[in-house]
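cron nightly-structures :: item 1 of 1
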Amino acid sequence: MLEIKDLEVSYGSIKALHGISLKVPDKSIVTLIGANGAGKSTTLRAISGLIKVRAGSVIYNGEDITNQPAHKIVAKHLCHVPEGRMVFANLTVAENLRMGAYLRNDKAGIAADMEYAFTIFPRLKERIHQAAGTMSGGEQQMLAIARALMSQPKCLMLDEPSLGIAPILVRSIFDQIVAINKERGLTILLVEQNANLALGISHHGYVLESGQVILEDSAAALLKNPQVRAAYLGD
């Protein structure tokens, strides 16, 4: 479904990605792991059109979408939940969810998808009229994912969904990521510092270091790999 080939991205004179390539098969969960500064978030931002690609290509459903505007990429049902959640703090939960559906005009479908969001994240229904900025970090992350689902994505990119969230909510959020993948057949590209948790729910994984892919394998194999365990799993 999603493939990047020889991707290069620079911030001024500093090269952030050095020709990385990866594939995200349809209906799979693929995770990118690596230390801070490895290029994980840059990869997602390049795919979603938030930063310019210097060289290489982004192929989505057989179409080259390299450097297309972000709003056009969302319209193709490829959605990005950025690091830091970026909810609309002054808007309510319901208003945030409606913002996720801004490209749609099917009222019945929007209402059905909002109910689905409340099914997977019941806390959001409890806080439907609450300003998003007054909620906890974990609740905001739930809202950010639910808002993305309102755009009816076929591929969802999640950047650090566990960052700054209480452990009890992290497990709940990751359980729902798995449920979304299974129930809706949603393809997921996941960037996550918690390598053990991320690989535990993924089908395949890539290890990034200094803007390069240094290792790729099935998630199960990476969990057993001594190099990965020593560097990222605390062994």
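cron nightly-structures :: done
The first helix runs from residue 40 to 47.
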